[in-house]
Amino acid sequence: MFKPNTSHSQSSLFGYQNMMSNAMRQELQESVEYAFYNMIFCSIREEDFACLYSDIESRPNSAVNCLVSATLLANRRNWSADELLRRIRFDLLTKTALGLQELDEMPFTEKTIFNFQNRINDHFAKTGINLLERLFDSLTQKQLKELKIKADIQRTDSFQAGSNIRNYTRLQLLVELMHRIQRVLSEDDKKQYANLFGPYVAKTSGKYVYSVAPGDLPRELDAVGLAYHRIATEIRPRYADREIFATFDRVYAEQFMVINDVIEIRPNADMTSDSLQSPDDEDATYRRKGTTENRGQVVNIVETANPENELQLIVDVAVEANNIDDGRILNERLEGLKEKTPDLKEMHGDGAYGSEDNDNLCRELDITMIQTGIKGAKPSGVELTIDQNEQQEYTVSCPHQTVKAEQTSTRYKACFDASICAACPLASSCKHSNKRYYFTDEDYRRKQRQGAIWELPPERRTIRANVEATVRECKRGMNNGKLKVRGHFKTAVYSFTRAIVVNFGRIVRYLKKKAEDLVPKGKLEPVPR
Fold first, then answer.
1. Strand ranges (DSSP E) for 126-246?
2. What pTM was computed for the model?
3. Whether residue 119 sits in one domain with residue 30
């Protein structure tokens, strides 16, 4: 049964703060942890999490604001679950951040916080609503309003969030799955199928693969295919309710095909980036960029970027499969962004965010897309510009003439004056040697997007670059680009909690600097540490 936690709002007569000296109590109340209590803990809308609990009379839930705040603190400090509980038990600053007042007060156990996160995951699976995203949005909206931060200009970037999984080769993945299938068999079936599994489970999947010579790999894959076919036809029907066989079905379909009653391994060219990368993370997808391989998710962030703001805050976070283009992710977030920040007028992103769909949506939402890098090769020769008047008529300009475009059945055509072209000093580098230029509405919009940056004052053309510092902040705690967790939902938990604590850290530093600037030199007063 859901019950809100309000005990922190009433001072305890026997609380540890009443045992402190005035100087020590003042230092505690000037700490970052006390600021966290006021800014974050007290701003958590516990009622948003009431849906996780039963409506009938039953045992009350552990305090939601404590559970959520503890998750945020663990992310901010990169604590393990054991370290988090130790801090709650023995660290007064951590107790202060969680609104605890008694020395021996423990708001929950390790099992409770894991169950709480599982409840959030189950709720997300059933409804598609991530309660931590809702928390992030509510906190951010309050912060934008209270700090009077302008959100009319924003910038976006993404980063790879590798899953905490082993990088399996194709054969190793298949053998590893056989290990896990063999473990769930009854003792009788283990004996019956000892010859089937024996060669593969006698050693770890890694050691098995290391013992296979490169030239023997095709033969080994064929042999595994026969083994998988036997598992599918003889074993799976009796163990269909076991979770591992759902994974087996997926791998069997992705890796093999049956042609004329013969099981064959699929060619590498037929394998897609969303095929299973590990039995430990069925959400992870594969992406190769240059020489870098990533298995996991991609996190897209958007933050305010108006130069008049004294600090910038992250306003949107999205977690997607890492084989989804940045442009598509932004397209799916723009309407929600406009709803959250109605004054949004200008979005800065790199070349990966440009697309025809985004051009159309930005036009509908009255947002100007500013690109700092353009996909594809830089155009050679004389650059042409396309303009459109109020009558939707196009004109095309080169450095020495402007002509009106004519509409054809499928596109537009601009015919240049041949006499001017003949005397043009740029004629040798002009690629429009036939004096005609063909284009479409999409070409016009693309040129508008690509050229929008040059309409800005010079000091606003480099706004997007600063988002890379935010990416580094969001990746803090990751090891070589990998998270400590697996799966889409846990990546989302990390990403939203990380965004909350990044915003909190920025606000604390901003308020500290503001307080220091108000104190005359030589008369420094204590400020939040």
1. 153-162
2. 0.85
3. yes
